[in-house]
Specification:
The structure is a homodimer of 304-residue chains. With 304 residues, chain A is an alpha/beta fold. Chain A has 11 helices and 14 strands. In chain A, strands 1, 4, 5, 6, 9, 10, 11, 12, 13 and 14 form a 10-stranded mixed sheet that branches. A 4-stranded mixed sheet of chain A has the order 3-2-7-8. In chain A, β4, α2 and β5 form a beta-alpha-beta unit. The longest helix of chain A has 18 residues.
Chain lengths: 304, 304
């Protein structure tokens, strides 16, 4: 199986209590690809970059199993740029700068070889752009997952609702689930969101783990306790990349396998925050991943 | 086995978005006893009340398996009173009134029949009062658990540290664990707290479940998702009562059984918040409890 991933290839400046990095390769598509290629290839990227994007980084992504045919290059443009500073408690962050650059006019065009892909991960983008990707697919994919954020609930709710009707899995955090549904109880929120379209809902709760809702089934995944979180940037995208990479690799949509996919996604997110940017993803091997997944299983095992 | 429980027998006024109750029987000792008597008897109560406390309520507690010999009655005094209003999101609350009344001079005296009890639950009280209970024990109990709060960390830290050196299990919430240890990471916080005395640490995270630390073992228990939380008052005490009641009943301090006890405590807490005060505890039977414990197990079950 292959996975199609839509999102940003970007440059970030990140300041945390543990240090700072400038102009590192980042963006949702980068994190998704870095995580998903540990499980499946090809991961077909759909994104846009300027002439400034690092060729060596792209070549490395390709070696890892990314297909770059869907990455549009605007030679005289600049890549999307974001700068942010995390608070001392690492719970919140302030955006210092955002420059859309080539992302401002991003109109994804799917190469012919991408159009029959069965697993689709729509990273957080303008909902209308997410829809435009679905418009170009031929046939019905096995699973379409979408990430979004409260900004689109505030500014493009109708477009967001339109794309929600076309997807299978929504991945949001608890605050976003509450805003989208207008419900405080996550149980009630899930019921309302499922009525909006996605039959599977995954609610990320950061240091408190993740919840998986599918029909009448519910699963609560813990978070690993980490001594230090160096850089939380991209944790959500890495979770989504690990989850969808695992699902595409195993091609099994049973609830039991969805649960495993949530744990694999959680494990990948627990790695990525250990260092800045995607650094930790680059040195990771499958044995380390499986070992960490086992730690998740041990953490929540109880025999009644 | 029997369980000794120290804490308050009180009257509460509680206002939540779902309604209000006035002058209902409450307090840490009440919640602990109401939960623990579902598992073990006798639950030996150590507390103080005024002549105003409801005799019928006490008689009901006794029928459930509470031993009231250690409850001091000050006939012309008034029982401890607390009034609070929960915020619309139920996450926070404001204290409207606190009247210590007979609690101001509470100096617990253990009846002779209590002094060799093996399981001890010290509810949240002045740390020096908690210590004075331990002073009266004869021999070494099998397990001493203690609940405390940030108020004592601010105002009686040395007394708190003194009693922590004498106990086995500390039960606090995540905010309290961070304050007590000065560590943001709960993993680092746990390591520091264990150095203070308690070899077992339980961190309550409310709607996010609970963490159990014991030596190098770690367990993450989920919270049940509830459609509605009517009244969160006493959830922590009920958790502690269920946990310690289960441990006293099973008399097994293996890590596997500690994990089960955390789940039983969590189940009891998930019931108590469904109605005001201890109402839900009063109608509960063991079949309902075991059924809910199974729901917790299902919620976190994954097969790799």
């Amino acid at each position: 199986m292959s996975l199609l991933a839509v999102g940003t290839l970007a440059y970030d400046d990140v300041y945390t209590p543990y240090g700072e990095v400038k102009m590192i390769e980042a963006g949702s598509c980068t994190y998704i690809a870095m995580a998903a290629t540990h499980f499946v290839e090809p991961v077909q990227l759909v994104s846009v970059i300027g002439g400034d994007f690092n060729d060596d980084f792209l070549a490395d992504l390709e070696r890892r199993g990314a297909d770059l045919e869907g990455v549009e290059v605007i030679p005289d443009g600049k890549s999307f740029y974001w700068a942010g500073r995390y608070h001392d408690d690492m719970m919140g962050r302030d955006t210092l700068d955002t420059q859309l650059n080539v992302l401002a006019d991003f109109a994804p065009k799917l190469p012919a070889s991408y159009r029959k892909t069965d697993y689709i991960m729509l990273g957080n983008l303008t909902p209308a752009v997410q829809s435009s990707v679905l418009d170009q697919l031929e046939g019905q994919p096995k699973l379409i997952a979408l990430d979004t954020m409260n900004f689109w609930m505030d500014h493009a709710l109708e477009d967001l609702k339109a794309v929600l009707r076309r997807i299978d899995v929504l991945i949001v955090n608890d605050e976003e689930a509450r805003q989208l549904s207008g419900e405080l109880s996550l149980l009630k929120a899930a019921a309302k969101i499922v009525e909006m379209g996605p039959k599977i809902l995954i609610i990320k709760k950061g240091e408190h783990g993740a919840l998986l809702f599918s029909e009448d089934n519910l699963f609560s995944a813990p978070a690993l306790l980490l001594p230090t979180v160096v850089d939380p940037t991209g944790a959500g995208d890495t979770f989504a990349g690990g989850l969808m990479g695992y699902l595409a690799a195993t091609d099994d949509l049973s609830f039991e396998n969805l649960k495993r996919a949530v744990i694999y996604g959680s494990a990948m997110a627990s790695f990525v925050v250990e260092d800045f940017g995607t650094r930790r993803m680059q040195t990771l091997d499958r044995e380390q991943i499986d070992h960490r997944v086992q730690r998740f299983a041990d953490l929540m095992h109880v025999a009644l």
